[in-house]
Amino acid sequence: ERALHGRLACLEEQNRQLLGQLAESQSQEDSTARKEREVMLRLKEVVDKQRDELRAQAHEIVCKSRDTEALQEQLHRFMAMNEDLRHKVAVVQAQLKSALEKKSDLEATMLQAQRETIRRSRTASEIQRPKPSLEGAPSPTEEPRHQDADAGRSPAHCCFSKEELQQILQERNELKTNLFLVQEELAYYQRELLNEERVPSFFLDAMKSTIKRQRKKIRAKMLGTAEESAS
């Protein structure tokens, strides 16, 4: 009977040990499971965060791609505008050059016509001026002298008719009118160039210098002096 009691006590002790080990094992398993759940939650948070970042980056890439396309279209428009501006500047430059040349030619022609008109008017006034009366009748020897002097006059000193003078004045007025129209056209082209915001500054400086030289040239022609002296 003692042996049975000793055996029973030993078995009870073993049973308590096994129960303790089982409880410890279950607690370890619970701790491991809890740690695994925590790790899984952390991983899920990291994955969700990375997914959100990837979506944000994808959206940013799409927006940048659209911005790039818009910038490319704007660049194409600017290039087309630049080409159109170059063509416009070339046309205006050619028109301005033609207007300057036309103005210079018309002013030179008008100046020449004015000089010719003044010369003819002086000639006509000298011819139509009454001769001073001489005391006494001219001697027979003096009369042939006057005839020879009148015969020796050049054709340029002949008297112009009224119709010819009117024609000269009409031509002069037409030249003045054409000159005024050319000046207005030149002023228009200058305003178009100088008010154009997209025209480069070096081109405006070159055009101003050209206009200044043309004005000096025209002034020299009007004054009848050399171009170098006017500059």
Automatic annotation (TrEMBL):
Compositionally biased intervals (Basic and acidic residues): 142-151
Domain RH2: 157-231
Biological process, per Gene Ontology: cilium assembly; early endosome to late endosome transport
A cellular-component GO term for this protein: ciliary basal body
SUPFAM superfamilies xref list: RILP dimerisation region (SSF161256)
Listed InterPro entries: DZIP_RILPL (IPR051241), RH2 (IPR034744), RILP_dimer (IPR021563)
Molecular function, one GO term: small GTPase binding
Top-level taxon of origin: Eukaryota
PROSITE patterns listed in its UniProt record: RH2
TM regions (residue ranges): none
Keyword tRNA-binding: no
Segments for region (Disordered): 114-155
Keyword annotations of the record: Coiled coil
Protein's recorded name: Rab-interacting lysosomal protein
